[in-house]
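Input chain follows. Return structure tokens only.
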Amino acid sequence: MSYYKRNLPHYQPKGYYYFITTRLAGSLPREVVVKIQTQMEEEIKVIPENFNKKYTTEKFNNIRRSYFHKYEEILDLAKYGNTWLNIEKIAKIVKDALHFYDEKRYNLICYTIMPNHIHLVLYPIVERNSVSLNSRNEGSNDKIKTINYRKSGSEDSLYIVTEIMQNIKKYTAREANKILNRTGQFWQHESYDHVIRNNEELYNTVNYILNNPMKAGLVRNPADWKWNYVNNKLLV
């Protein structure tokens, strides 16, 4: 199976793009996280069992997306914890780490580095053959274009996205702590990851990420945010 659950659910099948969010440790108070998570789980419990699978999956994803935005609104206010990613040297460490693995472990579609969290979209490189997002539905008009990918050393990993983020977070935490002259946890242990299922969702997600600094009141135009990136060649 490509699913596991710690505090957050993680479903990581091969052959998909992923929307990922990771945040600094302490950027959301535990009581806030527990409250939102409890509310979400209560809503999920009332989804009818043994009902139409498409309906239940869509309902689950809508609930999860709704509560993700509640977390996001609090993160954008940056009222809790540290905003170490506002430090240019630290933001550059994160930027360089994201690009270092590009075309090695994944194809990097876009990202934004916010003061206390980052969003990104990537496609893990796990197969040698051409892979399309909706490979089981080749006749769909909603299919993302086919791209050729090289093999990765992590091709047998069930949780490829978790592995990628662990590597990035481990390195960036160590280097950032050197700058801060501190030890201890830098990132929150878990990252939020979400499978992007179709072309429309991919474009909506990219726009959401690039507009995040403007939505948070940091700039007037997404193009003015230094820590925004998008590879438009992979969106053609």
